[in-house]
Design goal:
This protein is of the alpha/beta class and 284 residues long. 18% of the residues lie in helices and 23% in strands. The strands form 4 sheets. Strands 1-2-3-4-5 form a 5-stranded mixed sheet, with no helix packed on it.
Length: 284
Amino acid sequence: MKGNRNKPRKDGARAPAKQPPGKPATPRNRTGPAPSPAPSRASDAGPARPAAGNAQPARPRRSGVFPVERLPVILEVLPGEDYALLDSGNGRKLEQYGPYRIERPEGQAIWQPALPASEWEKADAVFTGDTDEEGMGRWRFPRQALGETWPMKHDGIDYLGRFTSFRHVGVFPEQATHWRHMEGLIREARRPVKVLNLFGYTGLASLVAARAGAEVTHVDASKKAIGWARENQEIARLTGKPVRWICEDAMKFVEREERRGNAYDIILMDPPAYGRGPKGEVWQ
């Protein structure tokens, strides 16, 4: 009946007003904030919000220039004139160095090889012995006896590969990306550029820099490595380029250069995991 709408109750309070169909009733208690509606799904539920009286102060917004995001760089060794990574797996790697197919230890190759065993069996030289990077070992030549050295070429620069007792062969092809970048910087400078190559090993990076027009200081603690590097300079026909060959502990040389006030435009560093200086200094 129409006369019964909002009729006062005996306790003095009005009866709640009817709500439109499909719309939930809203409590009329004004002494505090209305409760939040129940979430429609369990995934909608989130952390409880503080009451209006306990609201947290807003966080200040950052302003200015944000730093550029830096992502890790993975260098991929692509096949070159005299090098190609053929396969890897089971703690070994199979590579092509000039005319020779070489098998060596590689502790990070924990997967299975992609090539069949018949391809691995075609290796001309296999390093056996200590699997540590600086560990001693020996070479086995399954097909025929090979000499200690053989001719190699990188980007038009001739040099010697060599079977060493530390499983290395005189070049680290993964560094070629850095060499190309360095060469570009030297040529773009259009002025004399001073390059310091620490732990220079057999000198291929030094020769790349010298060919591009830089004045190079090559430092290595090994007399054998220095001799090998100078030999590579002759083979590459770059003896007329300005390269200083220094047989000394790298850290001592740098400290002395700092005291003398000598500066360089580019510094290359590819230190070994372990090594010894000419006077017994230990690098680790």
